[in-house]
Each structure stands twice: as structure tokens, then as C-alpha cells.
């Protein structure tokens, strides 16, 4: 299995989030503001990429996948709200840090659930070839939406995610 299999790429980005949240602790002022803004954008790109490429197939192919998808999308919206709440405070203030810690916690809990509960059912239901092709789409999606460009940041709707048609095959061949 190559490094471009979709769950390997999702996991790699989870590790980036863990590092990025920890790295905030050592920053202040403009650097802190810029690092948070970048992290916030990356969280949104990650969530939408999963809602377009991972969760629809989990819902459609895996036994119990629809409930897992509902949980995952619910978590994504919770993370969105937690991240938006950060923006309501002055960067570096006590209230700001409290909001960041909350966003970090809800995101950490969600990532753990994906890795522990959702990846195994997904990998059982979606074959290697398709997961590799989805990995290429995952990378292409990130190229298209750098800094969350073109993404609304609005809540995702479970029924829409479940009904999303994911194209088959590698987009680069
Ligand atoms: Fe997620
Ligand atoms: Fe994720």
C-alpha cells in the first residue's frame, strides 16, 4: 500500500494538526495570529475533503457507516463552531486561549474516533485500488483549496454528505 492511500493521508494530516496546535503555545503576537489563521483554514480544508471523499463512501459501503457518518459530520460542525468561537476574542488573551484549547480538544477527540472506529470500517468496505484513487483526489482537493479558498466554512448537512456521489478511479490517469 502506497503512502497515497487516503486514510494514510488523513492520518498524516491529523499528525500535522496535533503538532500545529502544540506549536501555538510557543508563539505570540502576529506570529500567533498568523499560525492560528493558517491552522483554522487547514481544519476546514480537511473537513470538507473528508465530507466529499471519505464519509460518503463510509456511509454507502460500510455496515453501520451511515451512523458513523452522522457522528463524523456532527463532530465537524462542532469543530467549525469551536474554531469560529476563537475569532471572537483578542488573539493571545485568556479567553482566546480558552477557546483554542476547546477547539483543540474537540478536534483531538474527533480525530481519535476517526482513527480508531471509522478507518477500520472504511478499509474493510472500500478496496485498496479505490482508496489509492481517493488519495489522489484528496491531494488534488488540497491543491484546489489552499488556505480554504472557495470553501464556505458553513455547517455540513449529514443527508447531503451521505448522498454525495464520489467519482471512481484515479483522477490523474
Ligand atoms: Fe474528520
Ligand atoms: Fe480527519
Automatic annotation (TrEMBL):
Lineage, top-rank taxon, reads Bacteria
Chain ranges of the Hemerythrin-like domain: 7-120
What is this protein's name? Hemerythrin HHE cation binding domain-containing protein
Q: Which organism is it from?
A: Blastococcus xanthinilyticus
Amino acid at each position: 500500500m502506497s503512502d497515497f492511500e487516503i486514510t494514510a493521508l488523513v492520518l498524516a494530516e491529523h499528525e500535522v494538526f496535533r503538532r500545529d496546535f502544540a506549536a501555538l503555545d510557543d508563539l505570540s503576537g502576529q506570529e500567533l495570529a498568523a499560525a492560528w489563521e493558517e491552522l483554522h483554514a487547514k481544519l476546514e480544508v480537511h473537513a470538507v475533503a473528508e465530507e466529499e471523499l471519505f464519509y460518503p463512501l463510509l456511509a454507502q459501503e460500510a455496515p453501520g457507516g451511515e451512523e458513523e457518518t452522522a457522528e463524523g459530520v456532527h463532530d465537524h460542525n462542532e469543530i467549525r463552531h469551536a474554531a469560529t468561537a476563537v475569532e471572537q476574542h483578542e488573539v493571545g488573551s485568556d479567553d482566546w486561549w480558552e477557546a483554542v484549547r476547546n477547539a483543540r480538544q474537540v478536534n483531538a477527540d474527533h480525530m481519535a474516533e476517526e482513527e480508531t472506529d471509522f478507518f477500520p470500517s472504511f478499509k474493510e468496505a472500500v478496496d485498496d485500488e479505490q482508496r489509492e484513487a481517493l488519495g489522489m483526489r484528496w491531494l488534488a482537493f488540497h491543491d484546489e483549496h489552499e488556505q480554504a479558498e472557495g470553501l464556505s466554512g458553513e455547517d455540513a448537512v449529514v443527508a447531503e454528505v451521505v448522498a454525495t456521489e464520489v467519482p471512481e478511479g484515479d483522477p490523474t490517469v
